[in-house]
Amino acid sequence: MGEFDKKQVSRREFMKRSGAGALMLLAAEPLFALLKPTETAGNPLDRYPDRGWEKLYRDLVATDGSFCFLCAPNDTHNCLLKAHTKNGVAMFFGPSYGYGKAKDLYGNQASHRWDPRLCQKGLALIRKVYGPRRLKYPSVRVGWKAWADAGFPREADGRMPAFKYAATTLDQTARFYDGDKGKARLAKQGYDKDMLEAMKGAGVQTLKFRGGMPLLGATRIFGMNRFTNMLALLDRKIRGTDADTAIGARIWDSYSWHTDLPPGHTMACGHQTIDFDLVTAENASLIVCIGMNWISTKMPDAHWLTEARLHGTKIVTIAPEYQSTSNKADKVILARPGTDPAFALGMVNVIISEKLYDEKYITGHTDLPLLVRMDTLKNLKAADFIPGYKNAVLKNTVMLQKGEKAPSAYLQDNQIVAQELREEWGDFVAWDAGKNAPVAITRDEAAKAGNYALEGKFKIKLVDGKTVEVRPVFDMIKEETSHYTPEATGAICHTAPENVVWLAREIAKNSGKTLLVYGMGPNHFFNNDQKDRTGFLLASLTRNIGTHSGNIGSYAGNYRGAYFNGLPYYIAEDPFHIATDEHAHAVYKPYYRYESAHYYNYGDRPLRVGNKNFTGKTHMPTPTKFMWFSNGNSILGNIKWHHDVVGWSTPCPRSRRSASASGGGRPPASTPTSSSRWTPGPRSRCRT
Questions:
Q1: CB 207 within 8 A of CB 235
Q2: Which tens digits make up the pLDDT trace of 501-550?
Q3: Which of 414, 426, 596, 682 is deepest in the core (most CB within 10 A)?
């Protein structure tokens, strides 16, 4: 019957033969005579017969131009990117590969290892640039425009009319709340009397400004500061004052407002923040991320961590969850939120009990050998027990006499201290183990290790004849941390005691080579300063502070602004005497006032309880009547009590009448308020 009868034919063979036959029949017809069978490619990776079709896809992504721009979503990333364009439209963003080309004034060349500097959000930024919510031109709210066209009419109590989300102009607001009349209007609205006194009669003090985090740069966020200082010109025009008595406006904080600021750093060291650049990761042997999700929150700098691990650096994460950085870690320790201080004290317990600390380092670089009086729990001073003692003349510190001003910032080359403050410090005391006697310690002895006792109780006879017991700081810390055994710490932190012991030994073993990296999340806890204090203690005991390979940091930024010692002259250049000659030196004259946005977040009021105002004069806020943010939404986006602030912070007539006794934007918790007097509505919205 044919070939199909002689053997079994598979389905694949049947389809192959029938398909070929159909093509031959079609090709024989006039309509299909021009069609030819396609040449099979075989292995497409080895050879492909026709690749002309690929041009279509290449044309879709082809560009005809490019330009570089700075992507600055925060104060530290600042990635230099390149936009690739076609017909004037940006098609996609990519790295510029320009970091390695940078060279400073001294000829130092940057490394190409910074390239490619770009993150996933930068790649997706094109969607936002051409998104439907993009603002293409300046906008103004319809209600405000109508109010301005009507001549800025006011209600009986001086507030703006009740159209929603109204805002007044800078000049009109400053004039309306200026002088005694303005003070009376604000008093009628229920503002705290101390806030009104802080204004000193200047309406410009009700104007608040703030640069957003993306603008944290030498001439970006600080541009808002400069403008705030320049408003002394407006104050002079309104009040008719002179350049000596004019007052600028108010600038709101950024760093501490976002709780980027680790308060314990300032409390323990007097510095804004102790930190290191993430590029130094490869210099460390051990990196401990404590509440910091490096891979996700520092994406452009994530490669420094992963590259360090390739070079042998051990990575440890301590967090309540298994985070993206944990995926890159050698050891993952899960801990209960808010227990970072306890975890650190548990490790200190292990280090002290096993004598893993660096004794030479702590006797020369820390206050752990200094003696503490048990009767007052204050440091023993040399003048306390040495009759007629005179504080030593410091050789490494410049002393300013009373009334003497410090030299300009760019001329300072040493630490500068007021003589009055130096006398207040006095000289501290340690117990010389060799002499078996107390010895005075001055600031000139810093970084000089001595044979000082770290443990023990000693008796000191004071100049007044009284005998007191003294102990080294180290001895007291040893007693305090004795309660934080690995078992107790594990119970507090909800982690295995073995984790505490293991990490303590690892940090001590990597003395001078451990980076303790704290994240910003722990700064939100009520006890956040304790995690900083205990972190410094842990770093100090193990000599992991102040070097490229061993340090502690609360990485919120690189703090590049501190390197520009001319920045104060840019911010606070005297607006009445602007230097127009490029060779002339700017005159430093600050007119602006700093203020924390936390008071606005607290009902636009100070911390008053009854008749007692706990907010000092240096931190006293003023009424907020005008706000200008530059590229930042965090005043609302990062705010606490969001609904409360939007509805009540800028005082409303009814809320102020019911809360006038407390001076706040809301009635005190103990004050009963009827619903008829405290019901949010369209007319009780925030109005200035």
A1: no
A2: 999 999 999 999 999 999 888 888 888 899 999 999 999 999 999 899 99
A3: 426
What is the DSSP code (8-state) at residue 87?
Answer: T
Measured CA to CA in angstroms, residue 531 lies from 324, 337, 465, 517 at distances of 23, 12, 40, 12
Q: In whole angstroms, what is the distance from residue 79 CA to residue 197 CA?
A: 45
468 burial level (CB within 10 Å; 0-12, 13-18, 19+): middle
What element of type H or E holds 473? Answer: helix 473-481
Measured CA to CA, the distance from residue 410 to residue 541 in angstroms comes to 35
Secondary structure (3-state) at 472: strand
**Cβ atoms < 10 Å from Cβ of 533:** 19
Region 584-602: mean pLDDT is 90
- Report the alpha-carbon distance of residue 70 to residue 92 in Å, rounded: 15
Give the separation between CA 167 and CA 393, rounded to whole angstroms: 58
Q: Please report the beta strands in 205-354, taking only residues with DSSP state E, as ranges in sequence order.
A: 207-211, 250-252, 286-290, 314-319, 331-334
Bridge pairing between strands 612-613 and 250-252: unpaired
Which run of H or of E encompasses 5? helix 3-6
User: Which of 287, 338, 347, 315 is closest to 493 using CA atoms?
Assistant: 338
Which residues pair with residue 331 across a beta bridge?
316
Element (H, E) at 419: helix 419-425
Report pLDDT digits (tens) over 219-259: 566 888 899 999 999 999 999 999 999 999 999 987 777 77
DSSP state of 478: H
Cβ atoms within 10 Å, residue 255:
17
587: left (phi over 0), alpha (psi -120 to 50) or beta: beta
> 209: which residues sit within 8 A by CB, 6+ positions away?
224, 225, 227, 228, 249, 250, 251, 252, 627, 628, 629, 630
Q: Could you give the 3-state DSSP secondary structure of residue 187? A: helix
Contact predicate 183/199, CB 8 Å: yes
3-state SS, 328-368, equals HCCEEEECCCCCHHHHHHHHHHHHHHCCCCCHHHHHHHCCC
**Are the CB atoms for 373 and 365 separated by under 8 Å?**
no
Rounded to whole angstroms, how far apart are CA atoms 305 and 284? Answer: 10
Nearest to 339 by CA among 489, 484, 478: 489
- DSSP element (H, E) containing 310: helix 302-310
Indicate the SS3 state at residue 446. Answer: coil
Residue 8 has a pLDDT of 64
- Closest by CA position to 259, among listed 298, 291, 233, 235: 291
Paired tokens of 647: 């509805």
Alpha helices in 240-293 (DSSP H): 263-269
Are 478 and 455 contacting, i.e. CB atoms less than 8 angstroms apart?
A: yes
3-state secondary structure 367-390: CCCEEEECCCCCECEHHHHCCCCC
